[in-house]
Amino acid sequence: AQRVTQPEKLLSVFKGAPVELKCNYSYSGSPELFWYVQYSRQRLQLLLRHISRESIKGFTADLNKGETSFHLKKPFAQEEDSAMYYCALLTGNQFYFGTGTSLTVIP
Amino acid sequence: NAGVTQTPKFQVLKTGQSMTLQCAQDMNHEYMSWYRQDPGMGLRLIHYSVGAGITDQGEVPNGYNVSRSTTEDFPLRLLSAAPSQTSVYFCASSVQGQDGYTFGSGTRLTVV
Fold first, then answer.
1. B-chain residues near A99 (CB < 8 A)
2. What burial letters (b/e) apply to A44-71, b meaning 16+ CB within 10 Å?
3. Which of A57, A81, B17, B50 has the fewest CB atoms below 10 angstroms from its CB?
4. Residue B97: strand, helix, or coil
């Protein structure tokens, strides 16, 4: 069963525009959710986790249990934000990743 | 502190060959995992370990074996390589899962 859904494979926005990368999850327990980023030809890096409620590189994500969503947002996209973004759900000892969204920020 | 180190970075195998992908971490992390990354499918968990001597299967374990004899090392063995195992493999480790994982730089494997 698909536990994490990222409906957009590709997303393009202009520099300075707001960006939202969608993530929905399916889990009956109390979810622990993460966003990872992978820049071109680099390893995956933890971007943020909902439990810490932090803002990294201007990105934020709010857990909405009613909508089972954990969308990633940034008010003003920058060219260096172009990357692959993965939403991940931790259940027990296992991480489940979404299929990823490739974000392109157009200059 | 090297983090998570994977070797080799690239490998080409013939169908039926066996090999071991190496993963080592120097952060004294208990949790280690292997993922494969395929276009359009994201990352899928192959095997994971919550400590030395303890391993378990993930979503796609068939064709792979793991062992965890030490905290530092978590090798992934392909018993008889198949073209369907062509992928990029990532090893990751964590103190505990809820801290998030630190990923290695990946191994790009091609099976011909």
1. 40-42
2. bebbbbeeeeeeeeebebebeeeeebbb
3. A57
4. helix
Nearest to B100 among A9, A34, A98 (CB): A34
Mean pLDDT over A48-52 rounds to 82
SS3 letters across chain A: CCCEECCCCEEEEECCCCEEECCEECCCCCCEEEEEEECCCCCCEEEEEHHHCCCECCEEECCECCCCECCEEECCCCHHHCEEEEEEEEECCEEEECCCEEEEEEC
Q: What is the DSSP letter of B83?
A: G
A43 contacts on B by Cβ (under 8 Å): 90, 103-106
Between the alpha carbon of residue A43 and those of residues A25, A65, B102, the distances in Å are 24, 30, 9
Nearest-by-Cβ selection for B48 from A9, A32, A94:
A94
Determine whether the interchain pair B103/A96 forms a contact, defined as Cβ–Cβ distance below 8 Å.
no
B106 touches B8 (CB < 8 A): no
Q: pLDDT tens, B19-73?
A: 999 999 999 999 999 999 998 888 999 999 989 999 999 889 999 999 999 999 9
For A100, name the nearest residue in chain B, comparing CA atoms only.
B42
Q: Which two tokens stand for residue B64?
A: 């792979």
Cβ contacts of residue B103 below 8 Å, gap of 6+? A36, A43, A44, A45, B4, B90, B91, B92
